Each structure stands twice: as structure tokens, then as C-alpha cells.
């Protein structure tokens, strides 16, 4: 089963960390058929068809005979030390389809160097700016990029 790493790259100014809420917007595909803008949420628990376990998202694309299951394995913070570099912010196991891309949307918490939390930060516009009044500090997340990297596929051993 492939594991897909959702990676983020941004230039941070006045930011100590960017944390995810566990919700991601994905583009999925299987054998040339695809769907864009599908949300997976770590707080959702779905019973898997024909299985005893649960997953975070179950989806059936055109041409599929049975639904695919996606599980968020872990989420990670993007910190000031990661600024300017790609870093994995989530790993997702996908059974039955591929994760082609993901979009940063409003599902982030930006924490200033002073500790102020900006909830529901929308990173989807490419740049995010705020102001931490308590610490008299500009907060910027600039040049935002995302990509998906396959980190493991047990079928290809």
C-alpha cells in the first residue's frame, strides 16, 4: 500500500510554526480517472467496506468496483527551521488509489514567534500575512508551495 507524504514549503517571517488541523484537500486518481478537491479529515472515522477497520475517508471513483480507503497516519508541524524547504506535514496511506496533489487551504494554525495563534489560517492564496499586536510583530507565510511524494509502496518490494 502506498504512503503519500503531503509536503509544504514556505518562507516564514515572524512565525514559529504552522500546524495542521488534520484536514486536507486532495486530488485523487485511479487508472486515469480522478477527482479534485476531496477533503479528508483526521477527526472523521468511517467503517471500511468489506473490512473490520476504520479509515478517515472512503471514496469510489468512476470505474472502480469497490471503494478506496485513506488513513492519515501522522501530522507534523512546519517550523521556522523548515523555512524555505519542503517538509512533510502529513502522511496518508491510500488503498486503491493515488494522491496526486494537495492544496493548502484554511486548515492551518499559524503561531507567531510571540506565541499568538491565528486559527483557520488560509494558506490557499499563496501568501498569508497577519499582525501580532500584542508583540508588535508582522507575521508572514510567503511563497507557499505544496507537493505529494510517494514514501513507501509495499507492492513494489
Order of helices and strands: EEEEEEEEEEEEEEE
- State the helical fraction: under 10%
Instruction: Give the oligomeric state.
Output: single chain
* Average residue pLDDT: 92
Order of strands in the sheet with most strands? 7-8-10-1-15-14
Strand content: over 45%
What does this protein look like?
The chain contains no helices and 15 strands. It has strands spanning 2-13, 15-20, 23-30, 33-41, 46-47, 54-55, 57-59, 68-75, 78-79, 87-95, 98-103, 108-112, 117-121, 128-132, 137-153. The strands form four sheets. A six-stranded antiparallel beta sheet has the order 7-8-10-1-15-14, with no helix packed on it. A four-stranded antiparallel beta sheet has the order 9-2-12-13, with no helix packed on it. A hairpin with a 2-residue loop joins β3 and β4 (33-41). It is elongated, with a radius of gyration of 17 Å. It starts with a strand and ends with a strand.
Short key terms for the protein model shown above:
mainly beta; 157 residues; six-stranded antiparallel sheet; four-stranded antiparallel sheet; single chain
Amino acid at each position: 500500500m502506498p504512503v503519500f507524504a503531503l509536503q509544504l514549503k514556505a518562507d516564514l517571517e515572524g512565525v514559529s510554526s504552522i500546524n495542521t488541523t488534520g484536514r486536507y484537500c486532495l486530488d485523487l486518481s485511479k487508472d486515469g480517472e480522478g477527482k479534485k478537491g476531496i477533503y479528508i479529515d483526521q477527526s472523521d472515522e468511517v467503517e471500511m467496506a468489506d473490512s473490520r477497520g476504520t479509515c478517515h475517508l472512503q471514496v469510489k471513483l468512476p470505474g472502480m468496483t469497490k471503494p478506496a480507503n485513506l488513513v492519515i497516519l501522522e501530522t507534523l508541524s512546519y517550523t521556522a527551521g523548515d523555512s524555505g524547504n519542503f517538509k512533510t506535514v502529513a502522511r496518508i496511506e491510500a488503498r486503491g488509489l493515488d494522491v496526486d496533489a494537495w492544496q493548502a487551504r484554511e486548515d492551518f494554525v499559524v503561531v507567531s514567534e510571540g506565541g499568538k495563534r491565528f486559527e483557520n489560517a488560509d494558506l490557499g492564496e499563496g501568501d498569508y500575512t497577519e499582525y501580532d499586536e500584542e508583540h508588535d510583530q508582522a507575521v508572514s507565510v510567503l511563497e507557499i508551495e505544496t507537493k505529494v511524494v510517494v514514501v513507501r509502496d509495499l507492492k513494489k518490494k
